[in-house]
Write a structure and sequence with these properties.
442 residues, alpha+beta, five-stranded mixed sheet, two-stranded antiparallel ribbon, 13 helices, 7 strands, 62% helix
């Protein structure tokens, strides 16, 4: 619901008999204890933190004071649902690492954290006292009018003071005042609802982080980047199918035809030419099969990333231990990017490292897929800063244009590539890629 939609229920004829006035009253009433508790907490943290800062004990208290707006804002987003059916999303990002330090680092860098602290200060000092005054005035006026007969009966002297303004000295007058209070109650529900709507609009404005033009453009660039990645993967798959179903089948048929022609026992030199042609067709068939596997392996499509990495390990000249713990299928672009990254890393291990064994292990941590390829080789590998081939002269596993291409491909997916390879080894090739859940596969 947009901000203007919060005012629409006030124009409906059934507003008074609906649940909205009660929800508005509950929204404003709950502000009072929450605001009072917030004020007390902020004052205690500020006083204790300032007094103990000289002995460094107060610094954590001041840090808690800075972060105190986060839990309050989370509660306010939930409480807002009393009067606003549209959820207010949490603007905070997930930390890139694990632990308290990573969480504090990202929270202190976010603009949302400081806006929520400002909201907490405004709520504790201004908003809840005004709401308490408004709701209290309504309850005092309506409750005082409707309680007039009870006050008269309790006094025993046949009269009651109404709102300390005049005296009702008979029961007919007292019940008339009660009726006025009953009539006034739904009338006051409208300004109370308007106050709750205005309070909800203010809360939404203060706790939401509007997207700036630059942020919007960056998000659109991210979306267009992922669309290009998906389109690129779809095109790779189409080329792989065309080669598998078209050119490869024709080469198989050509090889079989040449073989049948040789069985006819033609005289030399035709027989030798046919044998040579069949050999060339077989070589071309092997090459096109390798090309198809390099474009997009079928095992990756059918069985997913762990099975595809197991296939790479089986074809590696070195023994490779594979341990991938994945919750299920990932996005095709993520699976493809990680597959080719691992393939390139293992190829470099076999060519340059002098290793006798390698391992591939990985899993999903905090919404990111982390995979490590480690070998027991001589080390010394590096990623070139200028894109030239490296590793052969360095005596390492090689970190040239192949790994540079891997790093570029991972960066398109929002991932990163790290390489640790001290002289003497071991070499650890680590990649991290965001892994949102896969869309349905058809």
């Amino acid at each position: 619901m947009h901000s203007s939609g919060l005012w629409q229920p006030l124009r409906r004829r059934d507003y008074v008999i609906s649940a909205r006035p009660w929800r508005a009253a509950l929204y404003l009433l709950t502000s009072v204890p929450i605001g009072a508790a917030t004020l007390l907490t902020l004052v205690l943290l500020a006083v204790a933190g300032s007094a103990l800062a000289v002995v460094l004990v107060g610094l954590p208290l001041l840090l808690v004071l800075v972060l105190s707006g986060i839990p309050l804002a989370s509660l306010e987003r939930r409480r807002l649902r009393l009067v606003d059916s549209t959820p207010l999303t949490d603007p905070h990002r997930e930390p890139s690492g694990r632990g308290l330090a990573a969480w504090l680092r990202i929270r202190l860098q976010e603009r949302s954290t400081w806006k929520e602290l400002g909201y907490a200060l405004l709520f504790a000092t201004v908003l809840w006292p005004l709401e308490a005054l408004a709701v209290g005035a309504m309850l005092l006026v309506c409750g005082g009018l409707m309680a007039t007969p009870a006050v008269m009966a309790a006094g025993g002297d046949g009269e009651a003071k109404v709102l300390k303004l005049w005296i009702a000295d008979s029961y007919p007058e007292a019940f008339a005042v009660l009726a006025a209070g009953v009539v006034l109650l739904p009338v006051l529900a409208y300004p109370l609802g308007a106050l709750a709507a205005g309070r909800a609009v203010l809360t939404r404005q203060l706790l939401s982080v509007p997207e700036s033009g630059a942020d919007s453009r960056l998000q659109e660039l991210d979306r267009s980047r992922m669309r290009l990645v998906d389109a690129f993967e779809a095109e790779r798959r189409r080329i792989e199918r065309d080669l598998h179903d078209g050119a490869q089948q024709r080469l198989v048929a050509l090889s079989m035809t040449l073989g049948l022609a040789r069985l006819e026992g033609p005289a030399e030199p035709l027989g030798g030419l046919l044998a040579k042609a069949q050999g060339e067709a077989d070589v071309a068939l092997v090459e096109i099969r390798e090309l198809i596997r390099g474009i997009h392996p079928q095992v990756l499509t059918d069985r997913g990333l762990p099975a595809a990495v197991e296939d790479i390990a089986d074809r590696s000249p070195l023994p490779v231990d594979v341990r991938l713990d994945l919750p299920g299928r990932l996005l095709e672009a993520v699976e493809s990017g990680v597959y080719f990254a691992v393939s390139e890393a293992l190829a470099n291990v076999a060519k340059h490292s002098g290793a006798t064994r390698a391992s591939v292990r990985g899993g999903v941590v905090s919404g990111r897929l982390a995979v490590e390829v480690e070998d027991d080789g001589q080390g010394g590998a590096r990623l070139p800063a200028d894109g030239r081939e490296a590793g052969a002269e360095d005596g390492g596993t090689g970190g040239g244009t192949g790994l540079q291409g891997v790093a570029d491909r991972l960066s398109v997916l929002g991932g990163s590539l790290l390489l640790s390879s001290p002289p003497g080894g071991p070499t650890v090739f680590r990649l991290e890629v965001p892994c949102p859940p896969a869309r349905s596969r058809t």
